[in-house]
Design a protein that fits this description.
single chain; alpha/beta; Aspartate Aminotransferase, domain 2; Aspartate Aminotransferase, domain 1; 7-stranded mixed sheet; 5-stranded mixed sheet; 13 helices; binds pyridoxal-5'-phosphate
């Protein structure tokens, strides 16, 4: 039905399953299980469940299914499985497809928990993990061999907003028979073309732009029907990282406004980045949509726009950044992103605190670096707030 629709229509209508009451807003089926009319029905459903037949909420649920179908339609994926958090999605995708002796090549600039899964968990089960500078195609070419099973990266890295070339890295991986798993949070489904660009599996923390209003943790894994039903689902349904129907309902509501929010956030992010460029109190402004971003051509080709995140580096290190964070009146200090509220994060002392100093230096996480997740507030109000906070920090 949704075949000819554009993304904004899909985000509102795709996957909707109405009950016999014909409700307008998607129904929440807050139930752990389902009743069978007869013992024969129960037996038949366990043998093979039809598209509208459910068994147990850990395996699937009608509200969760609506959410899965809607995101899969938006991304152009054959199938998907929704999870309890973004990390359940990342770890589930990787754990379900890997076994002892397998080899993974990953970019080094990762969300802290993704790094932990790759560096500390997979290796404990005998998986070999090699890290590369994700922006350097030569490093990918050197590291990926015929022995590589899986290639993993975040298409835009946190917090320094490096962009990884999905198409080129996928070509290198596929030439060596490896699967490509992309954590696509910073690109958002609005600016994502990851499957068309070569990704085999795409993962989102739906906690971010999809919920978009800081309410619920969630995640989703998207891919081929074979992978989702044959590999991921058995792993997820038996290990227990499934999404709650209540979260799926919140996220369905989030999807309805996601395109509007993300585009408005991107417009403000671009305006703020442009206004801050060359500011005397700043060492640098990092925004993928600015022409001075080292990969601006790739950003234009891969995403079209620079997205909702920017980072600034204040002169004066930690003291200046803390003064800046404390002086902001509209932007709040927290660590979520993609929220309707503008959020300031000091990665060196919070999200990336755990990293040793040399790793921080390698990733460009200095004491003056502040990550800004742009919200949907008025652009002028927000620019004024950030400017006065920079002033107060001097
Ligand atoms: C937030 C985030 C995650 C983890 O998601 P949770 O919903 O917090 O579990 C994974 N990857 C990236 C890039 C993220 O930003």
């Amino acid at each position: 039905m949704s075949d000819g629709w554009n993304p904004r229509t899909k985000a509102v209508h795709a996957g909707t399953r109405r009950s016999q009451y014909g409700e307008v807003s998607e129904a929440i089926f807050l139930t752990q299980g389902f009743v069978y009319d007869t013992a024969e029905d129960a037996a038949a459903r366990f043998e093979e469940a039809g598209p509208d037949e459910f068994i147990y909420a850990r395996y699937g649920n009608p509200t969760v299914k609506m959410f899965e179908d809607r995101v899969a339609t938006l991304e152009g994926a054959e199938d998907s499985f929704a999870t309890a958090s973004g990390m359940a999605a990342v770890s589930g995708a990787l754990m379900s497809m890997l076994k002892a002796g397998d080899k993974v090549v990953s970019s080094r600039a990762l969300f802290g928990s993704c790094l932990y899964v790759l560096e500390n968990i997979l290796t404990r089960y005998g998986v070999d993990v090699t890290f590369v500078d994700g922006t350097n195609l030569d490093e990918w070419k050197q590291a990926i061999t015929f022995e590589t099973d899986v290639v993993f990266f975040e298409s835009m890295s946190n917090p320094t907003l490096e962009v990884i070339d999905v198409k080129s890295v996928s070509e290198i991986a596929h030439a060596n028979g490896a699967l490509v798993v992309v954590d696509n949070v910073f690109a958002t489904p609005v600016y994502s073309n990851a499957f068309a660009q070569g990704a085999d599996v795409v993962v989102y923390s739906t906690t971010k732009h999809i919920d978009g209003q800081g309410r619920a943790l969630g995640g989703i894994v998207l891919g081929s029907r074979d992978f989702i039903r044959g590999t991921l689902e058995p792993y997820m349904k038996h290990t227990g990282g499934s999404m709650s129907p209540f979260t799926a309902w919140l996220h369905l509501k989030g999807l309805e406004t996601m395109d509007l929010r993300v585009r408005a956030q991107t417009t403000t992010a671009h305006a703020l980045a442009t206004r801050l460029q060359g500011h005397v109190a700043l060492e640098r402004v990092i925004y993928p949509g600015l022409t001075d971003h080292p990969q601006s051509a790739l950003v234009a080709e891969q995403m079209g726009k620079g997205g909702t995140m920017l980072a600034i580096e204040l002169k004066g290190g930690r003291e200046a950044s803390f003064k800046f964070l404390n002086a902001a009146k509209i932007a709040i200090i927290s660590n979520n992103l993609g929220d309707a509220k503008t959020i300031l994060t000091h990665p060196a002392t919070t999200t990336h605190q755990r990293l040793p100093q040399d790793q921080k230096a390698l990733l460009g996480i200095t004491d003056g670096l502040v990550r800004i997740s742009i919200g949907i507030e008025d652009t002028d109000d927000l620019i004024a707030d950030i400017l006065q906070a920079i002033e107060a920090a001097q």
